[in-house]
Amino acid sequence: NAENGVLSFRVKSESTRASKIEISGVKLDLDRAVAQGDIEVEVGGTALVQNADQASGTAFDGGKLAIGHKTFDSFDLTGSSIEVGEFDKNYVAKKAIATVVTPADGNARVGDVVFTVGKTTYTEAGVEQTMDVAPFIEASRTYLPVRYVAKSVGVEGSKILWDEATRQVTIIKDGQVAQLTIGSNILTLNGAKITMDTKAKV
Questions:
Q1: One domain for residues 12 and 93
Q2: Is residue 202 assigned to a domain?
Q3: What is the pTM of this model?
């Protein structure tokens, strides 16, 4: 059951052996109101974490928890106080499943940029520019030269860095740092790792 951003299901039986529950193929429907950064999911629920005074049918009464001769207020996930012996979170794991990248200046737009496979020229807002390498297609994927793509969206030449030792490209713009490594399918954006479906190459 999925409702209001929560995916839930019921565990119907117990087992003496640990089980594995895999959730895959997750798709997110987002709008521009979502803030920049990681989108994280929390894994919780009463099957995984629950304080005794939140469970039904317990001996605790009136929202109070008695330990020895002392009485403590019941645990409130929305409050700031955490009582003795109680869980301090309502989840057991948290993981980023997507990253939102928002332009620093909101509605900024660049002119049309057109790259053509096999040609060492491209047009930016109708003006022809020259490259030292042409885009190409391999294994049903179109490869574009990163330097010229970055320049076409306003990245300064001095902010496009190449490290021969690590074979890594670093692009810096408006506080954003993107990195690609030749031979790797991982794009790093502000420290967050994003998996591409093909590897960067020269």
A1: yes
A2: no
A3: 0.45
Residue 69 and residue 147 in one domain? no
The rounded average pLDDT for each run of 10 residues, N- to C-terminus, in the chain (202 residues) is 74 81 79 71 78 49 56 49 62 82 54 91 88 92 92 86 92 90 93 92 88
Q: Evaluate whether residue 107 is within a structural domain.
A: no
The pLDDT assigned to 26 comes to 79
> 123 lies in which domain range?
113-195
Q: What is the SS3 string spanning the chain?
A: CEECCEECCCCCCCCCCCCCCCCCCCCCCCCCCCCCEEEEEEEECCCCCCCHHHCCCCCCCCCEEEECCEEEECCCCCCCCCCCCCCCCCEEEEEEEEEECCCCCCCCCCCCEEECCCCCEEEECCEEEECCCCCEEECCEEECCHHHHHHHCCCCHHHEEEECCCCEEEEEECCEEEEEECCCCEEEECCEEEECCCCCCC
Q: Do 126 and 183 lie in a common domain?
A: yes
